[in-house]
Amino acid sequence: MLSARAVARRNFASFSKIPKVSRDLQSRVPPYAKLLTNLEKVHKITNNEPLTLAEKILYSHLTNPEESFGGSSGVSAFRDIRGKEYLKLSPDRVAMQDASAQMAMLQFMTTGLPDTSVPTSIHCDHLVVGKNGEEYDLPKSKDANKEVFDFLESCSQRYGITFWGPGSGIIHQIVLENYSAPGLMMLGTDSHTPNAGGLGAIAIGVGGADAVDAMTATPWELKAPKVMGIKLTGKLSGWSAPKDIITTIAGKLTVRGGTGYILEYFGEGVDSLSCTGMATICNMGAEVGATTSLFPYNDAHRRYLAATGRKQIANAADVALNEYNFLRSDKYAQYDDVLEINLSELEPTVNGPFTPDLSTKISEYAETSLKENWPQNISVGLIGSCTNSSYQDMSRVVDLVNQAAKAGLKPKIPFFVTPGSEQIRATLERDGIMKTFTDNGAIVLGNACGPCIGQWDRDDVPKDTKQTNSIFTSFNRNFRARNDGNRNTMNFLTSPEIVTAMIYSGDAQFNPLKDSITTPEGKKFTFKAPKGEELPQNGFEHGRDVFYPEADPKANAQVEVKVSPDSDRLQLLEPFKPWNGKELKTTVLLKVKGKCTTDHISAAGVWLKYKGHLENISYNTLIGAQNYETDEVNKVYDLDGKGYDIPGLMMKWKDEHRPWIVLAEHNYGEGSAREHAALSPRYLGGEIILVKSFARIHETNLKKQGMLPLTFADEADFDKIASGDVLETVNLADMVAKNGDNGGELDVKVTKRNGETFIIKAKHTMSKDQINFFKAGSAINYIGEQRRNA
């Protein structure tokens, strides 16, 4: 079979000024000539209507611009596409972390293709548990997860995928250092994939089935996002950091305010930020529900590309920018909304607990903590992670540590540091920063996600305690039980600088910007504002070769990918059954109360080890959800009144051939790109999820697995339905026959347990392709059908 990558290259003569790059960088530079050729078609269709940067990059990746604009032309086509039409896109690259890569590769294997159609990488960062430091933690984690790591490595060898093994670093930091580039379009199986937007890329978090689209050259579908302009004025100074920009934005937009938008940053304040600072901001754009975030190409990007061995890519980007007006928005481009942030007035903020959009200024935190009855003793401080482990972050932090050490101070609470990559770790070690950390009591964890995603073997607080405790972190997400499995741990998100200052006090009443700490000599010590370096003066250190993969591996069909039928970690997939052509008739198993994130739907932590085994991981389905009718967590009741845990009743009803439906409130599926939050409900017999509103990634994941995601046309109908009621679609067949183009509504017949019936209206967003997924039983089933019929 011909390799999927063996495709003749077009001659884009009109863009010949784009310089060539050396062979080792060819798979990493965006195909600028091809993208500009596509963009020319778009300009012709829209009569050269001004475009935002986000639109330029998205539309230049259209598989067929004429089809995406419906065959029409002019301003009307351009105006009508945002937030309404589906785009079919051809991404340049795919990146997957080890937890989500398992299911993605199990799905990819069913296609029968010899290799991936675009450069793809796997990063082993989620399965490494943090506790005592890399020397202790990494060997233990490698041994505990050997079967999974071996599976992913053999998949990589067979299909020509770059394999970054355990200990190499966190996916988003490695992507920034190696693969992200201005104008690139990338899909990543992690919700914080937009981190790469800090280097001018369109990088979107998706589920594994979406990644398989790109890996198989199947056009990837996305509803054209609206574009929100974030205008930055002024300049950061003193204690304020890039993290404060996005935590402030989260406080203004809330966890739903960015849904359906790309956040595009512009304004004079942009040029005062470092590339890694921009990455921090884009990383946490996921917390407001944004499709992705990005910054325009500028000098900070040039400096970072050069520092990471990619000056040739910077040279190509310079030509694309200066000769062809790519990589920046057009003058007079229009945003759907604009939010302005004055960096000169920005104050450090602390966000939490239990949600990343509850934002409190550091000057108000002490008073607010008393008012809200938050713990006054901070128990642990943690810095690093994919969000804040850059050299700039760590150099500013070590300045504070040195100030405290010079005054004779030591941390009063445990202090953990997580480097983002081997390159960062090695550079910090060479420059003496790592030694300063350890000499001052820090535990340096391995180059992996660790506590940020729940891989923390915490032993200072009992896991079953009912007492609340407070941790300060520079992480990006803080849902209940996320970090240590304890629902009573309050995680307050802030900059690494504020976290570091707080470990020397351990007191919620301490404001490091103005308050003092008494030294052992009885003197008053006050921190000075931290200072650091954007990039290391002596360049980045490569580090240990064992943590670096072959740069551009070739597929090897002789490699055997083994999955033992007796394994409790990996399980080959059985295709979901196709739609039978009939209306769906379901029984309400659960009404969910309040926030229901993907952590609630498919918990991480100890469950991460089952990511490759659909049956086993499905035992955690919705165990974090609160029953709206009883306020109980992970408790539902059968039709005879007998109580079960939620997955237990799902399994029972599956065995009884009783399809079920779950009802929920707003932003259902908020959080990570966790595909299992859609796979497990489908596997356990679910057919419909009916909510007040969805988070973008989760709604797409449900569609990919053949489920029917619906929203209430009238939110008041939520209160009219109870568990045990029967909900049956009325005109589903008509919707399918019209390929989803039926006005976007479905009638649903509700039959109460007393026999009363009535009709409610529900909304859907199913496209023609998504209808095909539904009919086939899943997107993978549909892709397989297309391959077999080709």
Layout of secondary structure:
Elements lengths: L31 H14 L7 H8 L4 H4 L6 H7 L4 E4 L3 E5 H12 L10 E4 L10 H11 L1 H14 L2 E3 L6 H8 L6 E4 L13 E4 L2 H8 L4 E4 L2 E8 L8 H12 L7 E6 L8 H9 L8 E3 L4 H9 L3 H12 L14 E6 L6 E3 L7 E3 H10 L6 E7 L6 H16 L8 E4 L3 H9 L2 H7 L3 E2 L24 E5 L15 E5 L2 H7 L14 E2 L5 E2 L59 E7 L6 H4 L12 H4 L18 E2 L5 E2 L1 H10 L4 E5 L11 H8 L2 E6 L4 H9 L3 E5 L13 E4 L2 H6 L7 E7 L5 E7 L4 H9 L2 H11 L1
Parallel strand pairs: 2-3, 2-5, 3-4, 5-6, 8-9, 8-11, 9-10, 14-15, 14-17, 15-16, 17-18, 21-24, 24-25, 25-26
Antiparallel strand pairs: 1-7, 12-13, 19-20, 21-27, 22-23, 26-29, 27-28, 28-29
Radius of gyration: 25 Å
**What share of the residues lie within helices?**
25-40%
Fourth-tier CATH superfamily name of the largest domain = Aconitase, domain 3
Number of helices: 26
Shape, principal axes of CA atoms: globular
Strand order of the largest sheet: 21-24-25-26-29-28-27
Secondary structure: number of strands? 29
Which structural category fits the helices and strands? Answer: alpha/beta
Mean pLDDT: 94
The domain count comes to: 3
Q: Could you list the spans in which at least 5 consecutive residues all have pLDDT below 50?
A: 1-12
**CATH structural architecture of the largest domain:** 2-Layer Sandwich
Strand content: 15-25%
Our measurement of the CA-to-CA distance between the termini, rounded to an integer number of angstroms, reads 13 Å
CATH C-level label of the largest domain: Alpha Beta
* CATH third-tier fold name of the largest domain: Aconitase, domain 3
Largest sheet data: 7 strands, mixed, barrel
GO molecular function: 4 iron, 4 sulfur cluster binding; aconitate hydratase activity; metal ion binding
Enzyme class: lyase
Protein name: Aconitate hydratase, mitochondrial
Pfam families: Aconitase, Aconitase_C
